[in-house]
Amino acid sequence: MFLAYVPRRLIAPAIGLTSFLALMVVAVDLPANWEEVAFAGCWISVVAISLSVHLPNPPNGLTVLAIAANAGVWVGLVVAAAGRPLDLLFALPLMIAAIPAIYILRTPVRLGVKIMASWLAAVAILAGSLPFTPTAGYEPDHMQ
Length: 144
Prior knowledge:
By secondary structure, the chain is mainly alpha-helical. The chain contains 6 helices and no strands. It is globular. Keywords: Membrane, Transmembrane, Transmembrane helix.
């Protein structure tokens, strides 16, 4: 949804940079113990990018490319740590989800895009904190 808020001339370079960095990071052989770091960093990045739609001014070129680079690195790390390189074929096309959001921003229901971005941030916070929350079955409880 972030791409819906950037200047149109920066959408293609942002998608290209994200894709390029994701492919480069996947090509690097990562240690198996990086999985938790990759997922935590990815969820933190999802929260930050989702909440960036609430900024008062549209992002400038450098900010857009920095956020695109951030997204590419974390997508690449998650796929490298927990998936197969071919999983990028499924992950990267999801960036085109910004296209409907671009058109929705031109309608009276444009607030819905910000609501969805806020919802995505909330889900990312929950999903990202779950591995750090002791739950039944993973930790000894008071009955043992």
